[in-house]
Model the fold of this input.
Amino acid sequence: MPSLLAPSAMLPSGWARDVRIDISPDGTITGVTPNASTRGGERVERVGGPVVPGIPNLHSHAFQRAMAGLAEKRRDPADSFWTWREAMYRVAHAVTPDALGAIARFLFIEMLKAGYTTAGEFHYLHNDLDGVPYADPAEMSARLIYAAAETGMALTVMPVLYMRAGFDDAPLEPAQRRFMADEDRLLAILESLRWHGRNSATLQVGIAPHSLRAVPVEVVRQVAAALPEDTTIHIHVAEQIREVEDCIVATGARPVELLMAEAPVGPSWCLIHATHVGADELADIAASGAVAGLCPITEANLGDGVFPLGEFLTVGGRFGVGSDSNIALNPWEELRLLEYGQRLVHGRRCLSMPEDGTGSVGGALWRAALAGGAAALHQPVGVIAPGFRADLLVLDRDRLAQPEAEEDDILDSAVFGGAALPVRDVMVAGIWRVSGGRHALEEPARAAFLAALRQIAE
Ligand code: NGQ
Ligand code: ZN
Done:
């Protein structure tokens, strides 16, 4: 495998020029040499732009890509997260295993083209359209594994526990029948996934209690205790004010408070949408080492609220980003909106860093989301250094707000410029998956995706 020669690259020590990156046949970086000269005869592949690590997408529900753009009509003056959820449930009940495979293939290509190189799938469509388990309990989740393998996306798949309709212990609604998975069902899915994933070098498996609404906190604790301590565990935690209120009524505590008190939350956990939190809760999340999973585009789309990022970073918290409902696939835009939400709330600028921090906001956001995303998905990525996987983006200077930018000005241009995706080529585990903005499978994947959409619409 030839080494890469990048005109510039973002290394742990900072930006460097003329960087040679050596990669082993299994896709691991084995050497990084700044200021490299190429002697004659050496096989190097010159890349056409600045190189940065590909970014993990720590939270996605692939099937929701099928409804992107279709839930933007007001049907009722009281439209909210909860009415959106009813529309989402209708889509959830029309997605067959084949349709899920087609949606995920197209979605993973869109993600790769945007710069995401690992997807975290928080997956809860387990049962068939009648709510009966498939003969293979991992029938649906396996489609995500196969779609990832075909498109070259690295994947952390997290089958979801889902047991009740709300904090009052109400049984699942008919519209939730495909989601039902108690502890036994979850273990059966995990067992089957190990078989489906046996050939996937870039696959990790975790678990996801859907939320404290859907899983009693005692069950979250028991399931976590039964699995190895470093198991990847994600949970939706405090997205909507109403769920915070319901949690207080049912338990006397706020959801983050309750989770931190009752479950063994640690560095292998990721709290998705910890949107509504107080200072003590923020400090507890940061102290636990858990990653805050932020999905600014979806959180804006659903009217969730604004996570207090500056306060969290000041107490040492870590975060990553996710595309969640897949209404838009663009990590640059996620980070831009994350920062802009802070500016709109506080009436100040340049806020996504600890209180005493200074420097490039685009650079700080990209680095933080790399580290937080890699930790949350348990993947050896996010750094251009020996031992890490070669998940790399070659940026397209013609698409940067400042085409001649250098160092972190490149990331500020890419995050805040915003007209077009600034990504040209994408490598995952040493293999080019996007070249010149195109993925080899995009045409057939698009045709199959459109066919799935038509079938769902019927
Ligand atoms: C989900 N989405 O699991 O797809 C949720 C909606 C729920 C977000 N939380 C369903 N953004 O929370 O009950
Ligand atoms: Zn979600």
Remarks:
- The chain has two domains: 3-52+385-443, 55-377.
- The longest strand covers residues 14-23.
